[in-house]
Specification:
This protein has 179 residues and is of the alpha+beta class. The chain has helices at 2-40, 65-81, 84-93, 117-125, 173-176, and strands spanning 51-53, 59-61, 98-104, 107-113, 133-135, 138-145, 148-156, 164-166. The radius of gyration is 24 Å and the shape is elongated.
Length: 179
C-alpha cells in the first residue's frame, strides 16, 4: 500500500513537470509566431486614428475625408508652431474638434472632441502616421519591492532597441499633408 502511494506521488510529480514543460514550449512557440508576424509587418493589434484595416488585413487611409483633413491640419500646425502644446492650444482656441477612436458595443467608432495635449502628442509621435510599421516600442520591467514581484508595463524602449521598424510600410498621414 505504501509503495503504491509513493509510486502515485512520483507519477503525479512527473506529469506535473511535463505539463509545465509543455506549457513553456507552447508559450515560446506562440511568442515566436507573434515576432515572425511582426517582422513581416502583419501584426496589427489596434488601428491608429486615420487608418482602417482593409479586407486583406492591411492598413489603409481612412476613407473619411474629414478625419484625414483634421489629422493633416494638426501636422501642418505642428510644422508651423514647432510645439505640440501650441497646436493643442490653437485647436482648442479655434474650437476645432479632433477625431478619436472609441470602442463600444457597436465596435470601433470615431468621435469628435476638443483635443488634449496627450492626444495631439500621441498623434504627432506615432510612427504609423509616418507610414512606418513598428513593433516592440515598449517592454515590461520586473522588480522586487518589499518581497513582492512588481511588473511595470509600457516602459518605452530607445529607438535602436525596437524589435521591428519597417519604413514605407503604408501611406503616411503627414506625407499627404504636404509636409
Amino acid at each position: 500500500m505504501i509503495q503504491k502511494l509513493v509510486n502515485d506521488r512520483l507519477l503525479l510529480g512527473m506529469k506535473g513537470t511535463f505539463s509545465e514543460l509543455e506549457l513553456s514550449i507552447l508559450r515560446q512557440r506562440s511568442q515566436e509566431a507573434l515576432r515572425l508576424k511582426a517582422a513581416r509587418g502583419d501584426l496589427h493589434t489596434s488601428v491608429a486614428i486615420g487608418y482602417v484595416r482593409s479586407a486583406d488585413d492591411r492598413l489603409e487611409l481612412d476613407p473619411d475625408k474629414r478625419v484625414r483633413e483634421a489629422l493633416q491640419l494638426a501636422f501642418r500646425k505642428f510644422a508651423e508652431f514647432g510645439s505640440v502644446r501650441q497646436v493643442a492650444i490653437w485647436l482648442c482656441d479655434e474650437g476645432l474638434k479632433m477625431p478619436i477612436v472609441v470602442y463600444g458595443p457597436r465596435g470601433r467608432m470615431v468621435e469628435w472632441r476638443l483635443p488634449r495635449y496627450n492626444t495631439i502628442h500621441r498623434l504627432l509621435t506615432n510612427p504609423i502616421c509616418a507610414g512606418a510599421y513598428v513593433f516592440g516600442r515598449t517592454k515590461s520591467q520586473v522588480r522586487v519591492e518589499a518581497g513582492r514581484k512588481l511588473i511595470t508595463y509600457g516602459v518605452r524602449r530607445a529607438r535602436k532597441e525596437w524589435q521591428v521598424l519597417i519604413h514605407g510600410h503604408h501611406a503616411g498621414l503627414y506625407l499627404l499633408g504636404g509636409l
